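Box 3.1 A note on notation
Throughout this textbook, protein chains are presented in two layers. The first layer is the amino acid sequence; the second is a token string describing backbone geometry. Keep the layers aligned when reading.
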Amino acid sequence: MKIGLSFLGLGKYKMANYYWVSAKQENMEYKTTLFPETLPVFFNVSKLLLLVTKKVAMGSNCRELQRRMGAMLKLVEIPDGKNEAELWEIFSLVATAIPPQSEIVIDITHAFRSLPLIVFNVASYLRRVKNVKVERIIYGNWEAHDPNFDPPRAPVIDLTSMLDLQDWLHGIDAFQRRGEAEELAASLSRTQGQIWREAPSSAGSAGLPQKLKYTAAQLEKFSEALRLLRPLAAFEASQKLNDLLKTVQEEARRWAKPFADVLQNISEEIDPLYIEQPAILSPAHLKAQIVLIRYYLEKDLVVQAVLLAREWLISYLIWRQKKQERWREYKDVRFIAGKELNQAAAKQRSEETTLPLWYNKFPESRELADLWNGLSSLRNDVAHCAMNTQTSSTSKIRDGIKKITARLENLVQNLH
């Protein structure tokens, strides 16, 4: 069932011939003094919830609309909205009146004072919490009427994009704060899909967005690689994404303005992750992984930072031993490097151990051993989910990996 949500006041509304162009490019018109009456005609709603104050409910406008619309119309009495408590009550009444997973059309033509602002916030809440589909938010714009007609013709304005803006903002915020691209990618894909659906069939594809959906897919690949600790995939995705962002700017400025406004920020954020040959272990690769660890810390992705830092130390040792040709082989290379780091770390703890050959060869050996002790402790604390009686506080884990990362950065300063 599609539900209309509308408002009414006490004013003397003038007769107008409201017109609307549907998604199928159909020209629709309706003559009335009471705009909520157009919703069943223009948007095929089968039920109309009319939000009115007690005074409005007793007025002539409301009685006339009830007469015209009959059982389709249901009144929802709201307070005047004179203070914060009443505004929150209006919010609650509207949110409660809409069932979960329903489809709604919101009309703010006769909404009074701050009600339109409340409506936009309620609509955003309903979409996220109740999985409600907001098909349209519309406004019968009497102020833009054409007096050369009798009755004057007045356009119906589609304000839904203002609600979409909140989705854009949520998506951009999630990506910039945590590297999560799902919402941003959804907005990009939805925008291209909607534009193509609403374009006249005779128009062809010329001038329509072509790259927004592909950009969305690349954003999601980059985000998934980040969050699932796939640094090589993240490096590859960042390169593709950065190249793509340079070519999608024109489309974004025309069709996805909120995305266009942050394109430069996103590009600058992922550009340091660019590496020409991500599958080859080299000083450039080790430096890029340090950048990625810093990226995790900036997004407060502490677990990812801890786990990658531990693997980074193994990769560093492999490179120092000139075994980089097989650096990703676990059994013959990475396992042995980890075992040797354990031996060196035991020496730092004054335990009996057999030292690896490189321990007395590399000047940074004691630092590597000490770092491995610290990373092993952090890794175990995180990986075992505090399921023991001797666990570190979250702040200690966060501070610990930040300090260790600074020491890892010192190791790569002189790499060449």
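The chain has a mean pLDDT of 91. The longest strand covers residues 133-140.
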